[in-house]
Structures are given as C-alpha cells and as structure tokens.
Write a structure and sequence with these properties.
With 123 residues, this protein is α/β, with parallel strands linked by helices. Helices cover 19% and strands 35% of the residues. The chain has one domain: Ribokinase (UDP-N-acetylmuramoyl-L-alanine:D-glutamate ligase), CATH 3.40.1190. A hairpin with an 8-residue loop joins strand 7 and strand 8.
Length: 123
Amino acid sequence: MKDSKQHKKIVSFGEVLMRLSPAENRKLPQAKTMDFYFGGTEMNVAASLAYFGEQTQQITNVSNDLVGDAAIAAMRQFGIDVSAVNKVDHPLGLYFLEVGSGLRASKIAYNRLHGSFANITPQ
C-alpha cells in the first residue's frame, strides 16, 4: 500500500535578506553592537515547512562573498535545499530593525535597491 501523502518539493522564490538589529531593544544611535539574522518572507516559509518535514528549496541570488556564504549556511541549517541559489557580484540586501519596547513602535529601514536579488535574471 502506498503512502497516501507523497512528499513533493516545495520551491520558494524570493529575496534573502540580512536583518541587523541593535542588541537589547536599543535604538540605532544608542547601539554599539548589532545582532544579525537571515530571512525574508519566502525563506521564512520554506524554513517553517522544512521544520514540519516538507522538502523545500529556495531560488534566489546571494552575494558572492562571506555574507552570501553565511546566508546559504543559514538556509542549510533550516533544512532548505540551496542547490538553486546563485552567487552574484552584488551585495546581499539588508534591513535594519529597531525592535520596539513598551509604547515605542518598531522601526525598519531597507537597503536593497541594488542588491543581489534586485539583479536576478532568468537562466
């Protein structure tokens, strides 16, 4: 008898970004250190699905440097197939997040206009 649930690969296509946030919910001008994380809507969905046992793959561009290597390593740690990730000579997109505290709302600023995903081309 065949398994009624056949696992198919779920492919996500979207930008992978590096998030930089001041430690301890500080505002950017108060910060001396920053924490960083890799994510992006599609990558986050792929990571969640991989956590639940689904086979996932990310299609994207990352920078051809140590930042891009770290982004790929993060995807692998989440169980995402990175065989369709391209390395290009454009920087990885960034965003800065000041996490809100109490009544202070979170603030976000994107730096991705000329980033690696903005320069993706069909293969």
